[in-house]
Amino acid sequence: MNHEGYQDPTAEKAVCRYNQMPYHMRRALTDLQDIASLFGFDIITIKDRRTGRKYRVEEKTDQ
Questions:
Q1: How many CA atoms lie within 13 A of 43 on its CB side?
Q2: Closest alpha carbon to 26 in 49, 55, 62
Q3: What's the CA gap between 39 and 32, in Å, rounded?
Q4: C-alpha 9: how far from its chain's center?
Q5: First-to-final CA distance of the chain
Q6: pLDDT at 59
Q7: Which residues of the chain, if any, have pLDDT below 70?
Q8: What residue ranges in the chain does DSSP mark as E strands?
Q9: pTM of the predicted model, to two decimals?
């Protein structure tokens, strides 16, 4: 919503895309999570060396 209380779909879409982890990182993260789980570890955050951005990994619900 904008400052006047109206919905602003363009801004909401831009913020959503900015916060979304890039595809190449999601793909690598899936493999890393599988390997880590074999040894009893969880991956909590991941950092892109090129951009310096850090992403918090969401919990899996498949317990």
A1: 19
A2: 55
A3: 11
A4: 21
A5: 36
A6: 67
A7: 1, 59-63
A8: 45-47, 54-56
A9: 0.58
Cα 60 to chain centroid, rounded:
13
The SS3 call for residue 54 is strand
In the prediction, which pLDDT does 63 show?
A: 45
Beta strands 54-56; 45-47: pairing state:
antiparallel
Residue type present at position 17: R
- What does each C-alpha distance from 39 to 15, 53, 61 come to in angstroms? 35, 26, 19
**Joined tokens for residue 42:** 């969880």
The pLDDT assigned to 13 comes to 83
